[in-house]
């Protein structure tokens, strides 16, 4: 697909006036103040916003208790979406009776009956856009795209049930109640019990193993394993919880930090296809790009397009960015992200994957990553991925600094960013590339 044309050429002419204005306003100012402009680019769900949050934790004011409390509604919405998706997955893969489960009709106990009243959050945040909820200090263009495009919910007009009698709850009841929840429901311990009953069901656990075939957020097991705590009335999200939330970015967000006495302006963009045409508004005078690619997604299809493998999309995008004339003098840093999930996955799943595009296109190769021969060896798989990305950059002069990262791990990002930062600062001094 001609992504290159859609991002860099068509948009260029369509928005040339806007860009000229943007350029005038920003470029002089940024040059004068010798700011570092750092752009986070990459496909949807690759981990850009998670790294953006880490910058705030490492170099900004972090997340206060009040700010973390604000995230409760997002975490609850994430949890509701995840468990609804799991119900659909289980049903699609044969249903709850597919596996004989002796506990499926056993009543569950309400651990705290005083906390069982359901309440709703009056503000529907629809979990998947951070356009308005972000704490960004500045933001250029953003669309008013508030559509939840990850939600598998079919319950936009849900009435929240009156407190269900948990003592008589069964799996069927739990499924019915959860299916009807709207995204803006505030979860309580009663709902938490329902979620746990579903999550612990063997058929759901079995379906979870096939999660690559569905669009289930990577934070699912993290949150579902903590459901009891998350549904308590006095729950206060931890910083780790904040890092695991999934809020799709729409538009362009920016934060400024002073790092080693230099002002860094860091930009986060939305990575889904419909967001990429907005990127061009942030392309002027970029000191460095951190391109984030989720290498764990080698067996997943895109949220936006079920016929395209996510990693193939990321590779094509990296090819465009790393060879773009816009970034001839820009340092490119490559974060091969979701290392934790990747290492887990390659133990059991071969990199060599059936190509979803081959189902519709007779000319498409039957298998992706067909030349991979490393089997379940994680080092071989990482090595293969590094080469797959680096080989996309055809500019021999361009030195690409890369690291395999885990964006949810603050220590890892601290170490990796420290190394990247030196390169960025050097590039800023010389004004181009990685410095002479
Ligand atoms: N386990 C794990 N989860 C990660 C990692 N990086 C990001 N995630 C999770 O992946 C999900 C998506 O991450 P985001 O940072 O929102 O992705 P994004 O690139 O900003 O996505 P868009 O805004 O749609 O472009 C979130 O739930 C993150 O917590 C990682 O290295 N490991
Ligand atoms: Mg994002």
List key phrases describing it.
alpha/beta, 10 strands, 11% strand, globular, binds guanosine-5'-triphosphate, binds magnesium ion
3D structure, described in words:
The strands form three sheets. The protein has a six-stranded mixed beta sheet with strand order 4-5-1-6-7-10, sandwiched between helices. Helix 5 (72-92) crosses helix 8 (202-209) and helix 6 crosses helix 7 (189-199). The longest helix has 21 residues, at 72-92. Residues 1-6, 8-14, 100-168 and 432-436 have low confidence and may be disordered. Helix 13 (310-323) links the parallel strand 6 and strand 7. The protein has 436 residues and is of the alpha/beta class. The protein starts with a helix and ends in a 6-residue tail after the last helix. It is globular and about 65 Å long. It has helices at residues 3-14, 16-32, 48-59, 65-70, 72-92, 171-180, 189-199, 202-209, 220-224, 227-230, 239-244, 273-276, 310-323, 339-346, 378-390, 410-430, and strands spanning 36-41, 119-120, 185-186, 252-259, 262-269, 288-294, 331-337, 353-354, 367-368, 401-404. The protein is built from 16 helices and ten strands. It binds guanosine-5'-triphosphate and magnesium ion. Residues 48-49, 249, 268 line the site of magnesium ion.
Describe the global form. Answer: globular
How far the N terminus sits from the C terminus, by CA atoms, comes to: 36 Å
Strand order of the largest sheet: 4-5-1-6-7-10
What proportion strand?
A: 5-15%
Largest sheet: 6 strands, mixed
Q: Total number of β-strand segments?
A: 10
The average pLDDT score comes to: 81
Rg value: 23 Å
Poorly predicted tracts of residues: 1-6, 8-14, 100-168, 432-436
């Amino acid at each position: 697909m001609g992504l290159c044309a859609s991002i860099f050429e068509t948009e260029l002419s369509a928005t040339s006036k806007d860009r000229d204005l943007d350029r005038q306003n920003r470029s002089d100012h940024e040059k004068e103040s010798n700011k570092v402009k750092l752009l986070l680019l990459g496909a949807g769900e690759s981990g850009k916003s998670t790294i953006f949050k880490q910058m705030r934790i490492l170099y900004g004011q972090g997340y206060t208790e009040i700010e973390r409390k604000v995230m409760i509604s997002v975490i609850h919405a994430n949890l509701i979406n995840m468990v609804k998706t799991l119900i659909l997955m289980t049903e699609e893969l044969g249903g709850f009776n597919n596996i004989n489960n002796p506990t499926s009709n056993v009543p569950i106990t309400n651990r705290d009956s005083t906390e069982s009243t359901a309440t709703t959050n009056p503000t529907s945040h629809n979990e998947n856009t951070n356009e308005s909820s972000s704490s960004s200090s500045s933001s250029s263009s953003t669309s008013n795209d508030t559509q939840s495009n990850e939600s598998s919910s079919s319950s936009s007009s849900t009435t929240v049930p009156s407190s269900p009698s948990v003592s008589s709850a069964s799996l069927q009841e739990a499924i019915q109640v959860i299916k009807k929840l709207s995204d803006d429901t505030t979860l309580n311990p009663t709902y938490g019990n329902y979620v746990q009953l579903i999550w612990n069901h063997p058929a759901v656990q079995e379906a979870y193993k096939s999660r690559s075939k569905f669009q289930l957020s990577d934070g699912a097991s993290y949150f579902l394993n903590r459901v009891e705590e998350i549904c308590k009335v006095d729950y206060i999200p931890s910083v780790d919880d904040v890092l695991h939330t999934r809020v799709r970015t729409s538009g362009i967000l920016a934060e400024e930090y002073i790092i080693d006495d230099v002002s860094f302006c860091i930009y986060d963009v939305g990575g889904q296809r419909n967001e990429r045409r907005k990127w061009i508004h942030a392309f002027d005078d970029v000191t460095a790009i951190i391109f984030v690619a989720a290498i764990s997604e080698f067996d997943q299809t895109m949220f936006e397009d079920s016929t395209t493998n996510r990693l193939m999309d990321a590779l094509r995008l990296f090819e465009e960015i790393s060879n773009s004339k816009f970034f001839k003098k820009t340092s490119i840093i490559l974060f091969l992200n979701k290392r934790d999930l990747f290492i887990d996955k390659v133990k059991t799943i071969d990199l060599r994957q059936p190509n979803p595009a081959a189902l519709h296109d007779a000319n498409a190769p039957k298998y992706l990553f067909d030349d991979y021969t490393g089997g379940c060896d994680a080092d071989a798989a990482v090595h293969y991925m590094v080469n797959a990305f680096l080989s996309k950059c055809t500019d021999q002069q361009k030195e690409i600094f890369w690291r395999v990262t885990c964006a949810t791990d603050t220590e890892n990002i601290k170490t990796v960013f420290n190394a990247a930062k030196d390169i960025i600062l050097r590039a800023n001094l010389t004004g181009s590339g990685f410095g002479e």
